[in-house]
Amino acid sequence: MNAPADPTPSLPALPAVTLEAVELVRVRVPLVRAFTTSFGRQTERDVLLIRVEAAGATGWGEVVTTAAPRYNEEFTDGAALVLRDHLVPQLVADGRTLGAAEVPGRLAGIVGHRMARAALEVAVLDAGLRAAGRRLADHLGAVVDRVPAGVSVGIPDGGIGELCTQVAGYLDEGYLRIKAKIEPGFDLAPMRALRELVGPDVDLQVDANAAYDPDDARHLAALDALDELGLTMLEQPFAANRIGDHARHAARWRTPICLDESIHDVHDAVDAVERGAAHIINIKLGRVGGLVESLRIRDACRARGVPVWCGGMLETGVGRAANVALAACDGFVLPGDTSASDRYFATDLTDPFVLEDGHLAVPSGPGIGRVPAGERLVGAERTSLLHP
Ligand code: OSB
Ligand code: MG
Question: What is the fold, at CATH topology level, of the domain defined by 17-133+374-386?
């Protein structure tokens, strides 16, 4: 399934740019605390950035893959290879001069690898926007200057007690909604404890990352019991391809179902919504192959009265800047996984995103509005994919 080649009509035109250079920059950044989900435990990000030189400007994009293919089939080594051997050669096969909106179309012949192609789209767009002196948020049609911040809380090593301590801390900091990771065996008891701790009014949701088996009666019993807790949503209980199972149980539960891993493009989103499998969609620009596809999904959901929010992949400031610009667009009506830099890293690669009154400010500079600081990339592995 390739994304359609036509650019989203609502995006303003940008002057074409000539690509001078494309480089991969890879650097490890430790997380402030281990992040455990049903699919694994991460203690650092293996960050892969794309740097583009075009029209006298430098553009950046972040490949949001996980190091191992456990969230979806993409992984960071694979992304680096497909960028080097396929995506970048294909991007310039018809010449190095291109409009930023042309990137998805030029890459249309390559199947999948959406996180890799999304980062390339953002990097080229960032360069083009910087050359034009325009903000990404304005280019996308952002309607607010700050976005409400939620926080995604991993399964803590210390169990329920530590979960409660962490959540109390995040609420003290001002986060406006809490998303807790669950898995079979760590679901009902921790969520009951959390609901007890925060009271009935705090916006509480859970994310299973596809860990539940719809054919397992004990798994279903746990999800049925969670349905009593007044959760804002249950994110991706079953495997990505189990749309029918999501629909069947969504019809029984009062908790709205949000899909993440199931949604690769606008067709998946429309299909899931029309089949009753999703009441809410988590849009991650990497997972769906870029900003243009993200806005298509937003448009399709808006037309069907389905709320969307901006998910995250533990991005550094580079990826976060693009997420925050997207989250500022019309239709992103629920708080996203757009947390402050210090929730992830002791020192972000860019100027940090900070929580102010439960919100993150949309960057004010041109392009994505953030650049990685040179000193933070000392020792990074650099691979040139295109040179002058
Ligand atoms: O399912 O939303 C997810 C992180 C990595 C992979 C998948 C997910 C997540 C998160 C963290 O929940 C969101 C964030 O704070 O960036
Ligand atoms: Mg998720």
Answer: Enolase-like; domain 1 (3.30.390)
